[in-house]
Amino acid sequence: MKRVFLIVLDSFGIGQMPDAENFGDKNCNTLKRISVSKNFNIPNLISMGLGNIDGVDCLDKVNKLTAVVGRMAEASAGKDTTTGHWEIAGIISKTPMPTYPNGFPKEIIDEFVKQTGREVLCNKPYSGTQVIADYGEEHLKTGKLIVYTSADSVFQIAAHEDKVPLEELYKYCETARKILVGKHAVGRVIARPFVGEKGGFTRTANRRDFSVLPPKTTMLDAIINSGKSVLAVGKISDIFAGQGISEKLISHSNEEGMSITKNLLSRDFNGLCFTNLVDFDMLYGHRQDIDGYAKAISEFDKFLPGFLSNMQSDDILIITADHGCDPGDSHTDHTREYVPVIVCGKKIKPNNLNTLKTFADISATVCEYLEVSFKGDGESFLKEIL
Questions:
Q1: pTM as predicted
Q2: I need a surface site. Which of 144, 231, 321, 335 has the fewest CB within 10 A?
Q3: pLDDT above 90: residue 151
């Protein structure tokens, strides 16, 4: 029974890519930024060899690696969650998804209002926490939905849970998803529920993503089609619009996501457990919380020994990320960065892969290990690590 546990540390970038300025980024490095925090303590990742990865100059290097390490460049034309995960799953997106620096066009908003029966507020790029602070009171008074975007390809709808029940908000998101097609096919429609009163509005953990379908077969489809399982923890199922998923396991925090993933070690399955830990990005990267981000990666580091000690002889753990989100740079958006790849397991031979050309190499490696036929955009590095 072969199992791969693939954990995405959402936004854990490790250094600016050469083309970062084309994406509006300069001097971004998520890992380096958080490494100076008093909360930063990652002895296990360092002992594996995180500091030995190309370009990492803020951590100690080890003389003897205990894992396979390397960094991956993003080959897709983007720096968002959807393109990052699609690339990990074997699809390089050569055309960027649409973004709306001036808000959504009138025809989109008019159709959304027509189909939902609710007027909208805002309709421009905004910080997710600031938008509810600025528009939350008016939303409560009028029932108008707060619609906003960011530098990413997203259509976000914020609504107070007492004013708009969750299921109703999710239906509005489904409506928006059906409207946003063709040239307006944004990567994700996101439900952003919040609670509280004026001066103290806070977002809840009931967020839900409604993604556009992948344009072609992913490694998830290939694994499912081979008769094996794909267990999706966190927002993975949402990112892939439920496609290629045999079981969806919802989590509302990093802690819950790590707990679910660890518990799956005792589950008999043959295939892939694909986990996203979103707090790094949602709670700390976008909110420019350096100390919070550092604490979160330190908590993940503490999780690792217990997870590794319970892995079976044929299990492989792969740790990576989907983009960066430097919590100390000049903006609150994602950042165009290299991401780490760390591979552990009883059959793994510690090695430094140096720099890989695409995240898609993970999909090729996973499928080769699971003996699944898949022709994605990456190349397998399995022979270099077993």
A1: 0.91
A2: 144
A3: no
Locus of tokens 């205990």? 66
**Residues 164, 171: contact at Cβ < 8 Å?**
no
**Which residues, 6 or more positions from 199, have their beta carbon under 8 angstroms from its beta carbon?**
none
Residue 376 contacts residue 364 (beta carbons within 8 Å):
yes
Task: With beta carbons less than 8 A apart as the criterion, state whether 1 and 268 touch.
Answer: yes
- The whole-angstrom separation of Cα 187 and Cα 369 is 30
Query: How many other CB atoms are found less than 10 A from the CB of residue 371?
Result: 9
Nearest to 207 by CA among 143, 280, 276, 158: 158
Tokens of 168: 């109703």
- 374 Cβ neighbours under 8 A, 6+ residues apart: 90, 217, 219, 222, 223, 363, 364, 367
| Alpha carbon distance, N-terminus to C-terminus of the chain | 16
Residue 5 has phi, psi (to 5 degrees) of: -105, 110
- Length of the chain counted residue by residue: 386
Distance between CA atoms of residues 200 and 107, nearest Å: 34
Tell me the DSSP string of 24-88.
T--S--HHHHHTTSTT---HHHHHHTGGGSTT--SS---SS-SSEEEEE---SS--SHHHHHHHH
- Other Cβ atoms closer than 10 A to 245: 21
Instruction: Reply yes or no on whether the pLDDT at 9 is more than 90.
Output: yes
Give me the sign of the Cα torsion angle 266, 268, 273, 278: negative
Q: What average pLDDT does this structure show over 156-160?
A: 98
CA separation for the pair 295, 318 (Å, rounded)? 21
Specify the DSSP element, H or E, that contains 134. helix 128-142
Find out whether 265 and 4 touch, Cβ atoms under 8 Å. Answer: no
* Mean pLDDT to the nearest integer, 275-281: 97
pLDDT confidence tier of residue 152, bands split at 50, 70 and 90: confident
Q: Which domains does the chain have, with CATH numbers?
A: 3-95+213-384 (3.40.720.10), 106-211 (3.30.70.1250)
